[in-house]
Specification:
globular
């Protein structure tokens, strides 16, 4: 039976839905990442709906949001009560503000955090401690490396995933017969969409298969591994399949792409928390990663508390952002 592994990390919370040693879904919630879906807040109408039908509101904390379906009777400057229905999305080429809907009434309250979200799925939740790295036992680092690079390689197929302004594009590559590769690629794409929490418009470029039965088999292979709700097209004669999933928060890939330095810094804290041996802990990383850690003293203080020892930070010029490591003075 699938179960959630939940880790209250330093600077971020992490969760993975696992079954039989595999990660089915993975989510990360960085600390201070802005209002979550379900947040109810007071706002002031900043701009009435334009030609697109979208208006702008300013929340009490100064953040701007997009609002749809505004009554024409509302005047700019009026106070509103709103609910967040889509979190802010930091895309590679353009940022999309959070989206809210108008409420007739309500009391300001934060939306459910990651722990509350996974509890609401109905699967059992197992809180984790640093003593045993259960996430790593299920392939956590490999999953994050795939999400960061956009490359997912399996014996059956290879996926190249690109985040574009229009949609997420998944290109399927590999050897063997086109019909078999189309089925394997569609299955792997469906599994990866779920694992990376990809949403919105998603295009999958499969090998061209002239036979209609082969195209149907590829689409059915995706349907078997990607849970509803979603909408999709049939696989066309050129091997292209489009999926649309409701998009309410950044995907795992988008979270990493939006702040690679922060992602690397928090990952280094995770490794430091689990560094074996005795004595103080030394964190070695690229200068920009060390700068991010020093800019967040609360993270370092929490790491000191959890490890019960002193810390040292060492910046190494020329070290890749993703190549930080942590070690104890004595094995």
């Amino acid at each position: 039976m699938p179960r959630w592994l939940y880790e209250a990390g330093i600077g971020e919370a992490r969760a993975a839905l696992v079954d039989r040693g595999r990660i089915l879904e993975a989510r990360i919630e960085p600390e201070g990442d802005g209002p979550r879906v379900g947040t109810i807040a007071e706002a002031r109408l900043r701009a009435r709906a334009d030609a697109t039908g979208r208006g702008r509101v300013l929340l009490a904390d100064g953040l701007e949001a997009e609002i749809l379906d505004l009554p024409p009777s509302l005047a700019e400057g009026c106070k509103l009560m709103v609910e967040v229905i889509r979190e802010a999305l930091g895309e590679a080429h353009r940022a999309k503000p959070m989206r809210v809907r108008l409420l007739a009434e309500g009391v300001p309250a934060p939306g459910p955090d990651l722990l509350a979200q996974i509890v609401a799925t109905g699967f059992a939740v197992e809180p984790l401690r640093a003593a045993a790295d259960t996430l790593e036992e299920h392939g956590w680092s490999e999953l994050l490396e795939e999400a960061a690079s956009g490359l997912v390689a399996r014996p059956s197929a290879l996926l190249h995933i690109s985040l574009t302004p229009a949609m997420v594009l998944i290109d399927v590559d590999g050897g063997g017969a086109a019909a078999a590769l189309a089925v394997a690629g569609a299955k792997l794409a469906g599994e990866t969409i779920r694992r990376f929490d990809l949403a919105g418009s998603i295009g999958i470029d499969l090998p061209t298969t002239p036979a209609r039965a082969d195209r149907i088999a590829a689409a059915e292979a995706l349907d078997q591994v990607l849970p509803q709700p979603f909408e999709r097209t049939a696989v066309n004669g050129f091997g292209f399949l489009q999926i649309v999933r409701r998009r309410t928060r950044p995907s795992l890939m988008e979270r990493i792409a939006a702040d690679r330095i922060g992602f690397a810094a928090r990952g280094l804290l995770r490794r430091a928390e689990r560094a074996g041996g005795r004595g103080s802990v030394e964190l070695v990383a690229a200068p920009v990663v060390i700068d991010r850690l020093e800019a967040n003293p609360a993270w370092l203080e929490e790491l000191r508390r959890r490890t019960g020892t002193a810390l040292r930070l060492r910046a190494e010029a020329g070290r890749p952002i993703s190549a930080g490591h942590a070690q104890r003075d004595h094995a």
